[in-house]
């Protein structure tokens, strides 16, 4: 089958949105003329003939493919295995970008047009598009008559731009090619016209082994992104496009730098290539900006960020009239997402979210609320819409969970109130878990009933009323009907939640779902983890009063040695080394307080430890904001290297509570053990109520 990229795209669009696309909408979507689309449709009609399919139009000129479903499925299967006979504009622009990044200082426009096989006008349009794209990465594209085209930029920005272009426009192709490589397929040509297949395979295996097999797994998109950046870095370095010698932005004591250094050394051996120290610094930034796959790893040392995120949650809750302030899952998810996200934004790394427009359309009010709250709380960071959309997804997920707690009453109205309506009511409850109760009424009974009692009115016939909203559906409830009902629920979320009629499990008449033996075992383990964590924190709590004349390390040594003597840890020297390494990574003083939170995880620590030392003489330490500050209270938090999800959550709620209010700051800096213990007990009780106790 011979087919062009545009013809393939048109067929795909028509199949996926049957009857919705017209010639004009396709023209607008594909950015071509109406005549071009009409010409392509004639070719498509011939492509459909061998499958006994026809291209037809609805009364509104919507295009759809008419024929048996199995034939349409055959068509889709065939298209999946067909490679278009031409290049897409994105593929040509990628070739153009690679040429500009790898050729000499200037290239004549005519030579570029000949190389790409396009007209001068098309080349000019491509260069305009690339200039806009490259500008995001601080790269200037210069065109001079008689001289040619050239790029002005630092090497690091060129690497970011090239890697990002692959990730934005060829992400699915990258995933497919990596999968085929893992299955043993060999490529004679370069993948996507650039990557060495042998390099990609080795890098994929090594990154998977060193990073994704460890405690923290990267999100799929960031895993692919890291592989692409590593491959681009190696190939650019081999072609003598080197980073500036001064390129050194990361602390070499950081675990991320050490990990990238290990990967780099093994790649040098596997690929017989050279990776510079500057390359390792560059790739460390990419790794630090990567998102983790799940929020189970709580960043319990992110005191400042935790406070800001809590403020955002409270702010959004207030604007939407929904209380999400006790949703620990939402807080934990945002903390795990925003730590690397803010790092990326500060490094000015390009971010792309393919769902941004869809999210803005589906959650317009929520999007505005989140955007406004971020602007209020993070006044030093400019959040682009793509990043706001990612954060909206976290809130959207939390709101969906809260939707399930709202009692939504529906009524099904049909001419007689019996027969097919019972089947319809059963299907509604099966397909739409959001709807708690479904009542069946005849038209006459519905007229006599209290219509305000129902949140949703569904009817199989047109109702003779004009003063109520209702959804007209088929008695058999089609997929389109289900979609309409879901859209209504989503669009009227604010109205439904305003009534505040939450389900109390004690009131629910539904029998509880049977719990499997495996579920019981997991639940018991979680309860055990929570109990042991809270018990350890409270039992091991100790408040010291020291002079602090010898500096904060002297105080730390005394506290760690005391813990070793009590049998709470087995190697004080190792723990001290870990604490020093952690302090080198970044300041541990809490800004606008007199407290410092020193913490680490180590195999020699036997159980959770939280202790406070009140210093007679303040010590000068580096704050979490990078500024020096005076520390009067040293807070020590130690944990085993391997912790369960619940154990991490316990530490997280302690660290984020340190500056949640002026009262909290006063308590933790009071050196009063009874007050601190009472505060911890209150925190634990709130956690138990919101996470384990079902009232």
Automatic annotation (TrEMBL):
Query: Which UniProt keyword terms apply here?
Result: Repeat, Transcription, Transcription regulation, Transferase
Protein name as annotated: Mannitol operon transcriptional activator
Tell me if Transcription is a UniProt keyword of this record: yes
Q: What is the lineage of its organism?
A: Bacteria, Bacillati, Bacillota, Bacilli, Bacillales
> By its UniProt entry, which Gene3D superfamilies does this protein fall under?
3.40.50.2300, Mannitol-specific EII, Chain A, PRD domain
Q: Which is one Pfam family of this protein?
A: HTH_11
Q: Which InterPro entries match?
A: BglG_antiterminators (IPR050661), HTH_11 (IPR013196), PRD (IPR011608), PRD_sf (IPR036634), PTrfase/Anion_transptr (IPR016152), PTS_EIIA_type-2_dom (IPR002178), PTS_EIIB-like_sf (IPR036095), PTS_EIIB_2 (IPR013011)
Any one Gene Ontology molecular-function term assigned to this protein's record: protein-N(PI)-phosphohistidine-sugar phosphotransferase activity
Indicate the segments forming the PTS EIIB type-2 domain, all copies. 408-497
Domain PTS EIIA type-2 residue range list: 536-683
Q: Which residues form the PRD domain?
A: 194-297, 300-405
Q: Which gene encodes it?
A: mtlR_1
- Asked if the Swiss-Prot or TrEMBL record annotates the protein with the keyword Transferase, the reply is yes
Organism, as annotated: Halobacillus karajensis
Name the domain of life this protein comes from.
Bacteria
Q: Which GO terms describe its biological process?
A: phosphoenolpyruvate-dependent sugar phosphotransferase system; regulation of DNA-templated transcription
